[in-house]
Amino acid sequence: MLNAKWTAIAVGSAAVVCSVLSPKVTVNAANFAMQTKSIQLNGEVLSRPSGFVYQGTTYLPVFYVQQLLNSLKLQNKWNGSVWQIATPFANQPSSTLKTKSGSVVIEINQKVFAAHVQKVVTADPSSHKNTTFIPIWYIIQTLQAIGLQSTWNGAAWNVKVSDSDYTKTGTLLGSFSTLADAKAALAQYPGGTVRDVNGQTVWTEPSFVDVDLRYPAPSDVTAAAIDKYLTAHNSLMAGLGSVFMEAQAKYDVDANYLVSHALEETGSGGSVSEIALKKNNLFGYGAFDANATADAGTFPSEAYAILFQAWEVRNDYLNPDSSHYTKPTLAGMAANYASDPEWANKINNLMDQFAIDVGDTVQSYHPYDPSNQPPVPIGVTSPPVYILSGMSATVKVDPFYGDHVPVYSSAGLGHQHMFGRVLKQGDQGDDVQTLQQALGITADGQFGAQTAQAVESYQSAHNLGGTPGQVDLAMWNSLNLTQAQATVQSGTTVGPDEIVQGMVGGQVTEWYHVPSLNAWVNANDIVLNNVYRVAVSGTPKAANASIPVLNAQGKNIGSLHVGDYVVSDDQFTSGRVAVQWNNQATGAAETGYISAEIANLVKVDE
């Protein structure tokens, strides 16, 4: 995106350029020997203004120089004493050019480039209107600072342009004298192109769309840099920089991608998405278009959502043998991750913004090549687990299994084998794949015509009722697919201690570990009795994303993040409430108090 200063400066008009100034500063043209000069672009004459030599220096009228800049789409304006030029490519020197006297100031991107430049206001022989003339030396130095070289022989001023920069959408950004200058100026515009004077593309700036996401972001992407960036975006994720870096280290997924994807999905400040606010879902996981808010998965903390996303993306989208793999890039993920055709470009733009924020470009990232040998993740074999001891829950009636709710030795087995929907043509998911494996047909997880025919054949051979070609619980059990470790009676009170994200019947669903059963039960089959989300009044922002935790004496002992699950009796006394949570690194249970003036609790499952 262009610098805001670029869009704020309008192109000056001829009326502004030729404003008649006070006679006190006007010099009669008769005092000078006017000579016709030429202003050229690559040797082609654009204009033939009059100029003159004064005190040993040639002066040219500002108006005609503006015409040249306008032809190159370089926005500028002139008010009689200040000449402002706006360009995203300025490479101005650290010191300001100054002379002993003069009233003209030249600014590039609202920063002074030259001060005290002499001017002469006199009548232009062509228009007979008073016009400001300034020394050509300063004009040449100014254009050089914005990437344009020129020559001057005393009669002709020739600006040399060989290449022009364009954004990936075709917007002209600027023109340059050399390909090297054009390429350097395009570094912050991934996907943009350099075109030569014939309009042919001679360079395409690498894009984040083609970055290999299995490599870590450059070393300038740190926890502190992430937190600074999220705070600047007024994001509810401010303070989670260390978690993004942990996710990158554990699962070898680019931290810039994780941050940028989360910002795209959640918004910032007053535009935070509902699923981020109510479900800690930072990446739109499970938010299918038909019913995005209801279908989106729920996470026990934003930190857990970040870790799970890195694990999920690495396993299902970035590994060559994974189910949704195309290429380990944004472009590759876009094929199966999102329905929005602009998804990859949106993430690309945010990754570019973050890179610019830390003073970097896409050139520092690892481009994808089929021969790449990326790092091997250390934690890729199993999903992350959220620890929360002290939970109490009541088992409820399952819509398919009734009072005898199945439980499983692992959440993975549960979401593969628990019956959660009537399966029919058009469905997809792990349960479809489990069915196909049992029927001995291609197990691609897609319920197509071949699967429908195999289902009808099985129903006919086993005298099963139901709708032909559709799989109900009776057929599921006939194939012995439920495979539960045990069942638990509805109404039973259990004490879960861990949570993992999973699936049931094609829907994203949390699974809870119950130590007394040595088994996992899915979230749809229990009601949590004493688990709450830490919340704040209004929309969470950077300033209130971290919630101070106090000890009994009121001393600050740490912090929770907005959205974190905690165990509590929800009894606020003397303006505070006791909460229990677990250190996710060590598993140790911790207790403290949060102040009612800062935060509140929202019961999970309500």
Describe this structure in words.
By secondary structure, this protein is α+β, with helices and mostly antiparallel strands. Among the domains are: 4-160, no CATH class; 164-205, no CATH class; 214-364, Orthogonal Bundle (Lysozyme), CATH 1.10.530; 531-603, SH3 type barrels (Roll), CATH 2.30.30. Helix content is 26%, strand content 25%. It contains 17 helices and 34 strands. The strands form ten sheets. It has a five-stranded antiparallel β-sheet with strand order 1-4-5-12-11. Strand 11 and strand 12 (130-135) form a beta hairpin. Helix 12 (330-337) packs antiparallel against helix 13 (343-357).
In helices, the fraction of residues equals 25-40%
N- and C-termini, Cα separation: 42 Å
Q: Could you tell me the mean pLDDT? A: 89
Main β-sheet description: 5 strands, antiparallel
Shape verdict: elongated
Q: What is the number of E strands?
A: 34
Based on CA atoms alone, the radius of gyration comes out at: 33 Å
* Structural classification: alpha+beta
What ranges have pLDDT less than 50 throughout 5 or more consecutive residues? 1-26
Across the major sheet, the strand order is 1-4-5-12-11
- Tally the helices: what do you get? 17
